[in-house]
Specification:
The complex is a heterodimer of chains A (1064) and B (378). Helices cover 38% and strands 19% of the residues of chain A. With 1064 residues, chain A is α/β, with parallel strands linked by helices. Helix content of chain B is 22%, strand content 31%. The chains are: A alpha/beta (1064), B alpha/beta (378).
Chain lengths: 1064, 378
């Protein structure tokens, strides 16, 4: 069937900010959809609130809207753009739910818009658990016994029949939010209550717990005539009970006979029919009882998903691209397989390697969070590795996690106590390594963990080979070296076993000829010739890398997403690939994150899906011999490899490695700033508490305490007194043992400003200046910011410009640099310099229209700013506000106080000609819309009281009822603003600020704490605010912005403008 | 993790491949081929169509789920040898009764692990399926190459005779796929369809699928004369899969000619080729054949695509087919003829394996079609 020519314009829905359960896999799917549909000649309109995405690059759509993903916002865009169709299936659950909401609101009907790839009826069956269950039972498809309830009373009645342990899931939530496993009445009531609150329809499902059953997923596709293919089978190493996003998974399935596998395939096909999927990719999840073989269907998603991104990368079959083509009417057999070119997409990939995915968690950033794994997804990223065998892939995945572990066997810190293996935690694999190493029986380990015994024996095999290596000593016999490398055991691990340095093992094995080769991911197990250089390393006899003799450059990606290093860096890497390709270079991408656009075989000329470690990168360099390696786009991960690569003689492009070192080294950098006469907070390095106390005696409280040599503000904290200092020093020493603790003067009550700048080594151009909206002391990644900085004086700006130029030149920056400043009174302090792309690069690019990462890549390839015509800071029309989103609702129990440790997962952007509107939009996009009526709770510190009075007056005039704590209320009353007094927490247990929030009468909280006691009160209020979804504003500048926004919202509705129209 | 003894695989083109022997010891000759199925090694090993072939699995981990008697497709292992990247002596599956190494050793089957199967598969893909030999306990490539060269050439080789049953037998056991809850019950049928199935190397799942559709099957040896079969008064004739060059099975082609127009005929794989030859077509040898469970076959009447299980080294030349015989199925990977329909004779066949085992179940309606032809005559 040819494509649908009645459609001209297609609107694609993105998935919004990165949150746990919905991450950059939807940027990957959205980019594929944009590219595929535009190549077919459709006009593409894209809507996504997330500026960090690659899909919102204005080159990828005809009209790009970085606007809130709400029915109201979309209706305005639809009115303007008049699309003929909407594709909701590549934007995650957000996209799908929005598609249904637009249908239900009558918008689709009103504008005559077709929903592509999904019918509202099918979405409802798939997403609504009760309808899904009914449909499955009616079609004779086995599902777990369960019951839906809408109240605690109903729940208590249902549990009698279902029994403990029971699984509770909330309807219509992301990533299993609001779910849990209850083993007794107390747990049951707590989880059900939480789930009912989380569910937008106040509904939870209570079902038989399948804890310990094996879990499988099939990624399937279907076209409009019913042709059906399974793209990939995935077997979870963690059994049922752990969310699949938190499970270690393996592709293809390893422990199913063909009969069992085909049974799952038949069921998946039937599920697709019953749900009524019209076309596209779906995912069907199964539970299989390991002792009886009983199979139950658990759920299905009628859209592309995190698993389908994984399946695409695992097989080379681009599910989102093909789903987009199917949605406009093509059949599977009419679409070519890009990799083989000669065969169609209507086939099932066969893979001749093993793929392992391991999630990456960030529990260390969330004190108090429950770190056990269950039905609610908690991981923030994942690593994928490809090897010929499971042990090889697993070892590669472990070292690709970038958590300082070089292999499976190295996972447990010495002397750490091993808890029960029955409870799934982020550390369970490490504990398995430990108990196997001490000699526990693999079958016993399998029984405790619920891992299939096959996997456990494979893991034990790794340890057995390592024991052999240890016994053999150095030099390790050649056959054993081959065995070890074929199991994916890193040089560094071998070195540790035989008492040699990593590089000595590398030299030794190269002498033996034990070198990595590369095989292709080809969808067909080599049955046909692969034309796409999508490669993975392995120690086999052939090599399919076939390097060319073109001028080539290698770009190192960022590895698994984590808080602080995510999609923003992938945006930069992809921009670099495009820029360098356009300059005529062959581009070589190295990365191991399956969710990303950079690991699409379509992005760079050549893709090496490999861990970002010195060993793995050097192996590729040996094979490809690139002219240059670019390290400044992948975040901190490639920066950390720079010294090793440079030492091995690898040509690093851009800022010289010695300058990167200098900027990373606090001591050297301090000296440089002193030499340049640039102000910076006083600081010192302490090796003990005594030294710390001595340093603080000079600097004075408050101080910022952080361990050295860690990433993303890990364990950073502000100490207000010696009690804090003692505690934080102890924590910092634990996080980075043996390394000194950094102590900085904390510039309190300051404005913070971020600058992204470009340099060609000669001149420096500032690309964007962003003013933080949150107070100083909150990590820049957690702070909302506005571009241009509307409240920074010309005086401060010119000092910052001057400093930026001087630092850039002094470091010899070639490419990107990011500087963080604190402004207090007439002093401009330089807080931090990062000689690399920063998180804000995509935001600056979208706001200014200057493709900052692209320019930076060109600079590193030798172009000058003058040649590129980038000689001054680009002007900005209107205001661009970046707001962040936090994962607190996914991590119950976590301390919600903001501080110098970054904890947000994603960001949104709002833009408008007025700051207030831009701010209001950003709040809507972040899911915390400003109220236009209702009540405001104000509790501000003494310095802020006068400004608070003005805000209070304005809010009163705007029709809001005001609540205030004693001091704030007194100030307001004195100024004649009517206000109700609310006791602080601790002043009254029955009635206080937190109780007020919980009672639901508050629509907005303005709280500017000063000092530790107030900070702690805010923590409690914030927890309640998150739970009851009330926006909390913690600076007066943000509060003023909010009030302006509210006023504008009351006066005038928000309007949307595409980036293309904006840049004009 | 046991350490297996070294072994060598040699191809007639002189290439030598090392591996370790996990099955029986000794040496064997045969045609080197590869199969891209991710699961189903036991069914593949026991499929008589692999007689005379050294089968390379592209799935790296083989043996993980062990073996179970229920999954045998015949009463012995027919593949001459098995080559894998990584065998698993550790077994994990609720139905498993034995490990793959034990199973193969018990049956005297030679098998290699630690082979760079992807390199080998690319070699076969680029140079074609060819004669090969394995010698265990040795790394002497030269001797193995000589042994490979002295093997039989698949062209013109009649192997169906070597795998067929010696005497006729009856089959009534049905199998409604695999249902753990009922263990695959056999339904008792009144007035079953009387089918005679030529055993050129028949797989049990074909018999089960026919039986579960109400057929009572008499399985006869490959060389059974047509008169003898017609005397049994069958309502339909089934021509089974099997190994070797179809053109060499002249007795079967001759017998099939005599059924045309008299009885509905359904052929699978070798049976399809024999039907095509009987109708006047010609066959040719493919460079390296189709072996796997992921092949897209397009139905020429509806345009639908079925994912199918394949195992064939020969194919029918569609241009050689006479008038009145239509190509019903085409492989979308290489446009190879995968099925034919001769409605005038009530005869049809497919080159691939609708009975799967292993493989997807997309095409099981073909068995219904055969039953419908017989039903229409009642």
């Amino acid at each position: 069937m040819p494509k649908d020519n009645s459609i001209k314009t297609i609107l694609i829905l993105g998935s919004g900010p990165i949150v746990i359960g919905q991450a950059c896999e939807f940027d990957y799917s959205g980019v594929q959809a944009c590219k595929a549909l535009r190549a077919e000649g459709y006009r593409v309109v894209l809507v996504n609130s997330n500026p960090a995405t690659i899909m919102t690059d204005p080159s990828l759509a005809d009209a790009t809207y970085i606007e809130p993903l709400t029915v109201e916002s979309l209706t305005g865009i639809i009115e303007q753009e008049r699309p003929d169709a909407i594709l909701p299936t590549v934007g995650g659950q957000t996209g799908l739910n929005l598609g249904v909401a637009l249908a239900e609101a009558g918008v689709l009907e009103k504008y005559g818009i077709e929903l592509l790839g999904a019918r509202p009826a099918s979405i409802r069956i798939a997403e609504d658990r009760s309808r899904f269950k009914e449909a499955m039972i009616a079609a004779d498809i086995p599902v777990p016994p369960s019951q839906f309830v809408h109240s605690l009373t109903e729940a208590k009645a249902a549990i009698g029949e279902i029994g403990y342990p029971a699984l509770i899931r909330a309807s219509f939530t992301l990533g299993g939010t609001g779910g849990g496993i209850a083993n007794n009445e107390a747990e049951f009531e707590a989880i059900v209550a939480h789930g009912l609150r989380e569910s937008p329809v106040t509904e939870v499902l209570i079902e038989r717990s399948l804890l310990g059953w094996k879990e499988y997923e099939l990624e399937v596709m279907q076209d409009n005539v019913g042709n059906f293919v399974v793209v990939c089978s995935i077997e979870n190493v963690d059994p049922m009970g752990v969310h699949t996003g938190d499970s270690i998974t393996v592709a293809p399935a390893q422990t199913l006979t063909d009969r069992e596998y085909q049974h799952l395939r038949d069921l998946a096909k039937k599920v697709m029919q019953v749900v009524g999927v019209s076309t596209g990719g779906s995912n069907v999840q199964f539970a299989v009882n390991a002792t009886s073989g009983e199979v139950l269907v658990i759920e299905m998603n009628p859209r592309v998903s995190r698993s389908s991104a994984l399946a695409s990368k695992a097989t080379g079959f681009p599910i989102a691209k093909i789903a987009s083509l199917l949605a406009v009417g093509y059949r599977l057999d009419e679409i070519a397989n890009d990799i083989t070119r000669e065969t169609p997409a209507s086939f099932e990939p066969s893979i001749d390697y093993c793929v392992v995915k391991i999630p990456r968690w960030n529990f260390e950033k969330f004190a108090g969070a429950d770190a056990t794994l269950g039905p609610q997804m908690k991981s923030v990223g994942e690593v994928m590795a490809i090897g010929r065998t499971f042990p090889e892939a697993l070892n590669k995945a472990v070292r690709g996690l970038d958590i300082g572990l070089v292999g499976f066997s190295r996972m447990l810190g010495a002397g750490e106590e091993i808890p029960t293996l029955e409870v799934a935690t982020a550390e369970r694999l490490a504990h398995v390594a430990a108990v196997l190493a001490r000699g526990d029986e693999p079958d016993e380990v399998a029984r405790e963990t619920g891992y299939d015994r096959w996997f456990v024996h494979q893991l034990a095999d790794i340890l057995a080979v390592e024991a052999e290596i240890e016994a053999a000593g150095f030099p390790v016999p050649e056959p054993l070296m081959w065995t070890a490398k074929r199991m994916g055991i890193a040089d560094e691990v071998i070195g540790q076993l035989v008492g040699q340095e990593e590089m000595a093992i590398r030299a030794y094995r190269k002498e033996l000829g034990v070198v990595a080769n590369y095989y292709r991911v080809d969808t067909c197990a080599a049955e046909f010739v692969a034309h796409t250089p999508y490669l993975y390393g392995t120690y086999e006899r052939d090599c399919e890398a076939e390097p060319t003799d073109r001028r080539k450059v290698m770009i190192l990606g960022g590895g698994p997403n984590r808080i602080g290093q995510g999609i923003e860096f992938d945006y930069c890497c992809v921009q670099a690939c495009w820029a360098l390709r356009d300059m005529g270079f062959e581009t070589i991408m190295v990365n191991c994150n399956p969710e990303t656009v950079s690991t699409d075989y379509d992005t760079a000329d050549r893709l090496y899906f490999e861990p970002l470690t010195l060993e793995d990168v050097l192996n590729i360099v040996d094979k490809e011999k690139p002219e240059g390696v670019i390290v400044q786009f992948g975040g901190q991960t490639p920066i950390n490899l720079t010294a090793g690569l440079a030492a091995a003689g690898v040509p690093i492009w851009g800022t010289p490695p010695i300058s990167i070192d200098l900027a990373e080294d606090r001591g050297q950098f301090g000296v440089l700033l002193q030499d340049l006469g640039i102000d910076h907070p006083a600081w010192g390095l302490a090796n003990s508490l005594e030294e710390a106390v001595a340093i603080v005696a000079e600097i004075g409280y408050p101080v910022l305490v952080r361990p050295s040599f860690v990433l993303g503000g890990r364990a950073m904290a502000i100490a207000y007194d010696e009690t804090d200092l003692r505690q934080f020093i102890a924590e910092a020493t634990q996080v980075s043992p043996g390394n000194p603790v950094l102590i900085d003067q904390f510039v309190e009550n300051a404005y913070e400003v971020d600058i992204d700048a470009l340099s060609d080594g000669e001149s420096v151009v500032i690309a964007g200046v962003m003013q933080h909206i949150e107070e100083a002391g909150i990590h820049s990644g957690d702070s909302a910011c506005v571009l241009p900085p509307y409240r920074v004086s010309y005086f401060h700006l010119s000092i910052m410009r001057d400093y930026t130029e001087r630092i850039g030149k002094a470091l010899g920056v070639k490419g990107l640099m990011n500087i963080q400043f604190a402004l207090r009174d007439d002093v401009v302090y330089v807080i931090e310099v990062n000689p690399r792309a920063s998180r804000t690069v995509p935001f600056v690019s979208k706001a200014t229209g200057l493709p900052v990462a692209r320019v930076a890549a060109q600079l590193q390839a030798g172009a000058t700013l003058a040649e590129l015509g980038v000689e001054r800071t680009p002007p900005v029309d209107g205001f661009f506000v970046k707001e962040v989103v936090f994962p607190f609702n996914k991590l119950p129990g976590a301390d919600t106080r903001l501080g110098p440790e970054m904890r947000s997962t994603g960001e949104v952007m709002g833009h408008a000609s007025r700051f207030g509107h831009a701010f209001a939009k950003a709040q809507i996009a972040a899911g915390m819309p400003l109220p236009t009526s209702g009540a405001v709770l104000m509790t501000v510190n003494d310095f802020d009281k006068s400004t608070a009075i003005r805000l209070g007056q304005q809010l009163h005039r705007l029709g809001f009822k005001l609540y205030g704590t004693a001091g704030t209320a007194a100030a307001l009353e004195k100024a004649g603003v009517p206000v109700m007094i609310v006791p602080k927490v601790g002043e009254n247990d029955e009635y206080n600020t937190v109780r007020l929030i919980e009672s639901g009468v508050v629509d907005l909280i303005i709280n500017t704490p000063l000092g530790q006691r107030a900070q702690s009160d805010q923590g409690l209020m914030r927890t309640a605010a998150i739970q009851y979804k009330v926006p909390l504003i913690s600076t007066l500048s943000a509060a003023q912005a909010a009030v302006n926004g509210i006023k504008l919202l009351q006066e005038k509705t928000l309007r949307a403008r595409s980036l293309q129209a904006h840049y004009g | 993790m046991p350490t297996y003894p070294m072994a060598v695989l040699a191809l007639e083109d002189g290439s030598v491949w090392l591996g370790r022997s996990f099955g029986a010891e000794g040496s064997v000759q045969g045609e080197i081929v590869f199969n891209t199925s991710l699961s189903g090694y036991q069914e593949i090993l026991t499929d008589p169509s692999y007689h005379g072939q050294l089968v390379t699995m592209t799935m790296p981990h083989i043996g993980n789920y062990g073996v179970t008697p229920e999954d045998d497709e015949s009463d012995r292992v027919w593949a001459t040898a098995l080559l894998v990247r990584q065998v698993s002596p550790v077994v994990s599956n609720w139905r498993a009764r034995q490990s793959l190494p034990d199973y193969l050793r018990e049956r005297g089957v030679i098998a290699l692990t630690d082979v760079d199967t992807r390199a080998l598969v690319r070699h076969i893909r680029d140079n074609g399926a060819m004669r090969a030999a394995i010698v265990t306990g040795s790394t002497d490539g030269e001797a193995a190459v000589a042994l490979a060269k002295s093997g039989r050439d698949m062209n013109g080789l009649d192997l169906a005779r070597e795998v067929s049953c010696e005497a006729p037998y009856e089959w009534t056991e049905g199998f409604d796929w695999w249902r753990p809850e009922d263990g695959g019950a056999t339904a008792a049928v009144d007035n079953p369809y009387r089918v005679v199935a030529y055993d050129f190397g028949i797989k049990r799942n074909i018999l089960r699928l026919l039986a579960s559709r109400g057929c009572h099957i008499t399985v006869v040896p490959a060389t059974t004369a047509a008169e003898e079969v017609l005397a049994m008064e069958p309502e339909g004739i089934f021509l089974s899969n099997g190994p070797g060059d179809p053109a060499a099975a002249t007795y079967a082609i001759e017998a099939t000619r005599q059924f045309l127009g008299k009885k509905p005929v359904f052929g699978i794989c070798l049976g399809h080729q024999i039907l095509g030859l009987a109708l006047g077509g010609e066959t040719y040898k493919l460079k390296f054949g189709h072996r796997g469970g992921n092949q897209p076959v397009q139905l020429q009447d509806s345009g639908h695509v079925h994912i199918s299980s394949h195992n064939h080294g020969f194919a029918l030349d569609p241009t050689s087919l006479p008038q009145g015989v239509a190509v019903s199925h085409v492989n979308l990977n290489d446009q190879c003829c995968e099925g034919l329909d001769a409605p005038g004779y009530e005869a049809f066949s497919v080159q691939y394996h609708p009975e799967s085992a292993p493989g997807p179940h997309d095409s099981d309606a073909l068995f219904d079609k055969f039953v419908d032809l017989m039903a229409a005559r009642r």
